[in-house]
Amino acid sequence: MSTLKRPIILIGFMGAGKTSVGRALAQDYQCRFVDLDEHIASSESMSIPDIFSQYGENTFRSFEHKYLQQAMEQYEIISTGGGIISSDETFQFLKMVNADIIWLDAPFSVLYARIKDDPNRPKAKNSQKETLKNLYLSRVSRYNEIAFIKVSTNSTFNETIATIEKNISANDQY
Questions:
Q1: Is position 16 annotated in a ligand binding site?
Q2: Binding residue per annotation — 88?
Q3: Residue 118 counted as domain residue
Q4: Residue 61 known to bind ligand
Q5: CATH code, 159
Q6: Which of 82, 91, 150, 160 could form a disulfide bond with 14, CB atoms 3.0-4.6 angstroms apart?
């Protein structure tokens, strides 16, 4: 049984490590985890790039909102896609939700190195470094506005997990 008092929602740019961190936290806290992008792809029987190319980003964002609301009822830890804050509707939902929203971040150069050759990231595929940096910078203020804490994933994986768990534990004291 989970020892979490509230769900954890992991946000951050592509390549921040949301899925890896989410899986590790779910194992440590013995609770249910979902990668929202994987859940959308499975539920819609289409890859994220195929949803983008066939239906466009707006349709994907509406799927994202719908499945995030459903996931909140079924999972204790949710890793989101980097653009979860792009839709005003989803952004407002995240501002109001009773969850610990953790912003995973790293220097842009580190994020870029992690995502530059990944064909499963429609926003990164065939994009120039400067274009992606501008996308990253355009999202920073929204990540910051809704995050309970910001954690760097530019350290070791174990240090990242320890930092998150320490903050969750400290927050549970109140």
A1: yes
A2: no
A3: yes
A4: yes
A5: 3.40.50.300
A6: 82
